[in-house]
User: What shape does this take?
Amino acid sequence: MNSLEILLSSTAVVVAIAGNLYVLRVVRRSGRDRPHDPERVQKLIENAPMELLEKVLDRQPE
Assistant: This one.
């Protein structure tokens, strides 16, 4: 093997390992619920723009 082939093979191995780690991270996080933060919920309720909520609720189903 010449140096170009070694470099290409090494790069392919590194990319494959990085891809597998990314997929593993996504799989572990995808099934997990978000943590409940009562302070953030209360802040959202207090500061939510009601005119935007009315637009969502008034939409007719297609």
About this structure: DSSP finds three helices and no strands in the chain. The two ends are 62 Å apart (CA to CA). Residues 3-30 form the longest helix (28 residues).
